[in-house]
Amino acid sequence: MSHPVAHEVNFDGLIGPSHSFGGMADGNIASTHNEGHVSNPRQAALQGVRKMRQLLNAGLIQGVLPPLPRPNFDFLVAAGFHGTDQQIISAAATQAPGLLKAAYSASPMWTANAATISPSADTTDGRVHITPANLSSMLHRSHEQSDTTALLCSIFENENHFAVHSALPSHQDFSDEGAANHIRLCKQHGTAGLEIFIYGREPGELHNHGFPARQSRLASDRIISAHQLQPDRSLLWQQSKRAIDAGAFHNDVVCVGHLDTLFFHENAFDDPGRFLAQIRQQSEDLFELHTIMVRETDVPLDDAVKSYLFNSQIVQTPDRERFVLIAPKDTQAIETTNNFCKELVKGNGPIEHVEFVDVRESMRNGGGPACLRLRVVLTSAELEAAHSGVILDNDKLDQLEQAITEHYRDRVEISDFADIAFANECRAARESILDIVSLGSLA
Ligand code: SUG
Description:
The protein is of the alpha/beta class. Helices cover 34% and strands 17% of the residues.
């Protein structure tokens, strides 16, 4: 059967001007460890833009999602603060500094948590289905969903091609962290794939062990239904408790899939042998599975979490037959992961080359290259129907760099949040970015 050609478009989150180290993400070791350190939003955002440019210049289609409004005054007003912006900020700074910190959270940069996406090749109605994540397990991320939904509705407005759902109900039983716990395997982007949903806990169970398990099984199950996926082409599987307790608060810290290839740590999943057998059984008519399973003896789970080896992007550039692994620079600094990367490209396996990228500022909050991007598989007609302002070229990247250099500080501490001048700067920065991507109506 013929099928339309489709492309994987990476939508990276542009790191916002309030990027900081709030220590707000329980179970995320880097976030806890770096709490209170001085951040450099300008450098953070420029690092992110450099990664986007690298992928664009490698021949891939690259998109961007602008930062959300910060501080989030709607969140502060909902939390009982009132008056002018200045009064709201002063009152929050003195009465509830933790809420003010949450209102400034730059965590929307990690767009792998923005939504779950099912390409049109997988859905019964032939549309791309999009469910914004409710992120209800962490306070500082729980208020992303309404602005994320508005943003995704603006970009994927055309209802003939796209179905943007509401986020799932905001309750811990429905706790959903988006694409970070979703793997789609397929032969080609445009052919039907197997969508795998990795959950951390059953509804009703908050902690299943030490660190919180963020994704609930019920949330994943409801997304399968909303996205009209075929039961035989979707699979729910549990993340191993051991991985969560080692700091893999999302599955994409220990696993990444691309086309027919699954790259993962042997301790990523509950009962990995049965998991792989199940994938093989369900994918028989769809693709031939290739696996790269990394042994604990080669890369201990702790090194995997420290280095974020698995939070790499696997991409296929037009000039190569096999894949490129876009890995965080930090994997070079750790002996086991550095050695692993050297060995990986020696054989004739699916990955031919490793490219290291510096996203250090994001990494210090537990966000690697793969956290910074939301993958959206689009046919040419769907790409045409999406808002073109967010699809990048070098000129737009230059403009973004200029706006960052002009508006972002190179030093931010949590105490800066109490200053209305900083809030105004954040607003001005966002407005200039929205102009560049022609989304001024969201200002
Ligand atoms: O939700 N860090 C984010 C990192 C998200 C990484 N995303 C993926 N794995 N896909 C989180 O834990 C830290 C913010 C702070 O503490 O200031 C934070 O939210």
